[in-house]
Amino acid sequence: MKLNAIALAAVLAAASFGTFAAEEAKSDWTITGNAGLFSDYRFRGISQTDKKPAFQGGFDIAHSSGFYVGNWNSNIDSEFFNGSNLEMDFYGGYKTAVGDISLDFGGLYYYYPNSDRTGRPKIKNFELYAGASYGTLSAKVYYPISDFFSVEDLAGPGAKNAAGSYYLDLSGSHDLGMGFGLVAHVGYQKLKGAAKLTEIDGTVTSSYVDWKLGVTYSFPNGFVAGLSYIDTNRDYAGVGGTKISGSTAVLSLAKTF
Fold it and tell me: I want to staple 146 with a disulfide (CB 3.0 to 4.6 A). Which of 59, 89, 126, 178 is the partner?
């Protein structure tokens, strides 16, 4: 009986050591990827693909300390982006929590390869962001510290820079059960200097609002299908005069791995 107790103790000790060793071996790093197909790429309510489909994907590397870096990519309309048909976003930041509130601070660089192919200035943008979330609700503000998507260079000599422009993003989600979910978003874009946009009717605007309401379905294999209604309070046109803002429905199928 004593021998059995000793043997049991030895087994439990070995199991405990194995668990401890496994916990010790667990990496402080997390790497995730994502990919998806979308019927349209809407950035802040405005189509970046001239209302055509987009394939998007990227990856994130996060450390247990809260620091992270990542990359995200999408095809875009080459005519709208001076010959570039690819958007590459690079970002990094720090996430932490204060009680039940999660905080996120970082920087985001938008890169458009070969956007100077037509002889015009290369399109680029760098924004700082700060966000907070509570449960399924979040708020984040983006503030450009470079020439906002190169609008000053593209506008030509004498154009005012876009200093003071910003974007406010308010988002939320709700689990409906049975794999279904509800997502909602409203955004406000403030535009300064040469960043101002002209509507189809010629009206020059210094701000606009976009919003989204959608439903998602999560499949057992990890894929997520979505259907969203997206709209803006302004009517902007692309290079060929095509309306690239306003109401639309966007279908999507994506997966995180």
Answer: 126
CA 177 to centroid of chain Cα atoms: 25
Joined together, the tokens standing for residue 167 give 């974007």
Fold of 29-256: Porin (2.40.160)
How far is it, in rounded angstroms, from Cα 217 to Cα 6? 53
pTM: 0.89
Q: Which of 43-47, 57-61, 174-178, 238-242 has the lowest mean pLDDT?
A: 238-242
pLDDT at 211: 99
Return the amino acid letter for 228.
Answer: S
The candidate with the shortest Cα–Cα distance to 51, out of 244, 254, 251, is 244
Name the residue with tokens 């189809």.
200
Give yes or no for a contact between 146 and 156, defined as CB atoms under 8 angstroms apart: no
